[in-house]
């Protein structure tokens, strides 16, 4: 499936997005990637979801083909306002918002500050490492090292040991797009994982919310998943047997967990 590639002005900046629009049965989906995942790297997930939904995947600011000038600002509120602007610019009516990792934090902040905007939320393994909580398990340097290696032309074989469940095509795509993730954006975003608290957002999520957490990762431990589920007014938590990059590890179970929720009335 060949998505439409386009740009819009949202929150005063230029955002690039991919639009997968063959599926028309379900509500539209806005899919928000993580800290070093431009939109193109999520195409294999969007294509599956687009069998039943229109799916829009943006390049988060500072990544991919979206605006990335120095000093742009990479706080959680910046990101949430961008996505609010994108939804209004296209426009998309009451989308389901799915966010992975950093994208899940953005989705939660968006829905907490814009009640009624999203019809449903899916929060996929959001970093929980705010003030007073355990640090995010992946250090900043691992992201910067990967970006540098990809920028120098690292091979698929060089990354194979770190991503054993990924296909060669998925690794190659990641290597192609990693250099578009600016050091400033990644550094500031990783810092915000530790300085910005998203737990106050959870009780403010008025729409039905599904927390999907990786059973084989340390980002959302089972006890914190239960804590979040108890805070959600209309939500639940479901684990998937996978590492943090859940769809790359176990796409079928990831979709199987989400699809009943996405299609429910």
UniProtKB/TrEMBL annotation:
Coiled coil: none annotated. It holds the Pfam family Abhydrolase_1. SUPFAM superfamilies: alpha/beta-Hydrolases. InterPro entries: AB_hydrolase_1, AB_hydrolase_fold, Carboxylesterase_BioH. The keyword Manganese does not apply. Residues 28-250 form the AB hydrolase-1 domain. GO terms for molecular function: hydrolase activity. Keywords: Hydrolase. PANTHER family: HYDROLASE ALPHA/BETA FOLD FAMILY, PEROXISOMAL MEMBRANE PROTEIN LPX1. This is Alpha/beta hydrolase. It comes from Lichenifustis flavocetrariae. The lineage of its organism: Bacteria, Pseudomonadati, Pseudomonadota, Alphaproteobacteria, Hyphomicrobiales.
């Amino acid at each position: 499936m060949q998505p439409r590639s386009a740009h819009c002005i949202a929150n005063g900046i230029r955002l690039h997005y991919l639009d997968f629009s063959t599926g028309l049965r379900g509500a539209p989906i806005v899919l928000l990637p993580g800290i070093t995942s431009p939109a193109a790297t999520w195409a294999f997930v969007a294509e599956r979801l687009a069998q039943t939904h229109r799916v829009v995947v943006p390049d988060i600011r500072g990544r991919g083909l979206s605006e990335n000038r120095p000093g742009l600002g990479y706080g959680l509120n910046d990101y949430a306002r961008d996505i609010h602007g994108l939804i209004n610019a296209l426009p998309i009516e009451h989308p389901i918002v799915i966010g992975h990792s950093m994208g899940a934090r953005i989705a939660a902040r968006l829905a907490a500050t814009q009640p009624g905007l999203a019809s449903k939320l899916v929060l996929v393994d959001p970093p929980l490492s705010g003030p007073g909580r355990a640090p995010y398990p992946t250090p900043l340097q691992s992201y910067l090292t990967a970006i540098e290696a990809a920028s120098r032309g690292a091979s698929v074989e060089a990354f194979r040991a770190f991503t054993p469940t990924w296909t060669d095509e998925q690794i190659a795509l990641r290597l192609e797009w990693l250099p578009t993730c600016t050091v400033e954006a990644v550094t500031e975003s990783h810092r915000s994982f530790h300085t910005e608290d998203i737990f106050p957002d959870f009780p403010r999520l008025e729409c039905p919310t599904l927390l999907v957490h990786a059973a084989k990762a340390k980002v959302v431990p089972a006890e914190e998943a239960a804590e979040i589920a108890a805070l959600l007014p209309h939500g639940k938590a479901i684990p998937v047997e996978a590492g943090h990059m859940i769809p790359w590890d176990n796409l079928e179970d990831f979709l199987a967990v989400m699809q009943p929720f996405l299609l429910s009335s």
